[in-house]
Amino acid sequence: MPRAIRLRRWQKAALEQFEASPERDFLTVATPGAGKTTFALTAAIQHLSRFPHRRVFVVAPTQHLKVQWARAAGGFGLHLEPDWVARDGFPGDMHGVVVTYQQVAADPRSIRGVADDAFVILDEIHHAGHERAWGDAIFEAFELGAQRLSLSGTPFRSDRNPIPFVTYDPWEEATADYVYGYGEALKDGGVVRPVFFPRINGHMEWSAPDGSILSATFDDTLDRTASNQRLRTALSLEGEWVTSVLDQAHARLLELRAEQRDAGGLVIAMDQEHAQGIAGLMRRRHGVEPVVATSDDPRASDRIAHFSDDMSPWIVAVRMVSEGVDIPRLRVGVFATNTTTELFFRQAVGRLVRWRRGLPRQKAFMFIPDDPRLRTYAAGIGEERKHSLQKRREEMEERELVDMAGREEQMSLFSAISAVALDEPSDDIFSDHYPEDLVHHDEDEGDDALLVALAPPPLQGAAAGPDGLTRGDRKKVLRKANADAANELALTTGMSHAQVNAELNRLSGIVRIGDATANDLDRRLRAANKWLARTGSRA
Length: 539
Fold this sequence. Notes:
Elements: E1 4-6, H1 9-20, E2 25-30, H2 36-50, E3 56-60, H3 63-74, E4 80-81, E5 96-100, H4 101-106, H5 108-114, E6 119-122, H6 132-142, E7 147-152, E8 178-180, H7 182-188, E9 195-196, E10 199-207, E11 213-217, H8 224-235, H9 241-257, E12 264-268, H10 272-286, E13 291-293, H11 300-309, E14 314-317, E15 330-335, H12 342-349, E16 364-369, H13 372-402, E17 415-422, E18 451-453, H14 471-493, H15 497-508, H16 518-535
Parallel strand pairs: 2-7, 2-8, 3-5, 3-6, 4-5, 6-7, 9-16, 10-16, 12-14, 12-15, 13-14, 15-16
Antiparallel strand pairs: 1-18, 10-11, 10-17
Helix pairs in contact: 1-2, 5-6, 7-13, 9-10, 14-15, 14-16, 15-16
């Protein structure tokens, strides 16, 4: 693991404020792409250096993010188990575990005892307000934690379900202990990209649930119900709007890939059927095979991880890539979903903002329906972008002189008839002609004041080995090999799986497979291979 890490200025300031805080709870709100994970893991390492007996609990929104957190922690020498369940006991060779909010909500009492006196990281804490039961479960599970660090990529309200461990002002806005916004990150340079919003108008016609035929463009003023129907019609695969927008987005992506060969695009779809339909359109019209990541696919996390590292042009997802997922090569997005909350919109835009070293000019583009709600959200981000970049430009010139679906409705009687995209000139806030792409000079690169010495995490079990895998990944491989060997033994000996597993546990000195260390699993596999050799199944 690195003995020292050079943080960004905001990370160093937030870390110092966190470590100086006498409170058990600390909320950091930092724009997507700013490096919240690095900040939180540095805080965890420093905390364990002072309290080596403590465990680390990370709570993440999705299964994919559990793996992402564990792999990021492995780079710090911090071993987190992403496949842990409370009934297994705590793994003896791991510093901590990663769980989802849904997992905590399902069994908070079992987690409570294990998390007593733990260092807790609550990633995208607003998920604890998803429903009242989730918030209650998070409170029950981590009430006894020694210290709780909550993270969010966007400011949020309490709505009807106050979130545990968060302080609110009189207007029900969460009060953050440290805030690092998109505009500030743009001004700093080398942190996030400027995102532009091509807005696509359209003429939509649909049959309302009462049987009436309606038509409107996005310029027409409609009530909430009709607005939702209009947006659903635009996004329908039966019309021409989606096809036209995908064509424009693909053309933009091809332009970007001419200068960044692995530049990627993301389409956020309404549901699984919609995602598959969009993928089909891309195949037929552009000859590309998009990666499709939907929650019903058990391999979705692997597909996302593979897309992150390859050259594929497009990924189509529903919600799985809307928050937290780190794919720095994404440069183009298509917002083709009827989820219209500002929080979701900003999270989706956040997938495009992560800065990549070595690319001086990094404009990103989110194609959006010109729905008034989305237009308002995009205008807010655009104003932050414009103001921050103008200020940065002025400062650079000075130095030279001196030396960014509402609620689900019943759609059973709704029917889209047609949707045609309309040309719409963009104003300055949305236009990509603004001179944003100033070459970034990383002034923090050699600033030793941003270096933080990292104490090695307390030793837990044996080393993970020379195979380059994190300890969690290595244990996953060993569990799979143990399961395969046990299946082979059951077939060879005629014993039941339960009998085989009990005997293997006895031979290797394991009480429960769930809390076995990597060494335990390795020893159990060797015992299985010796047994198989005696049966003649293996030489």
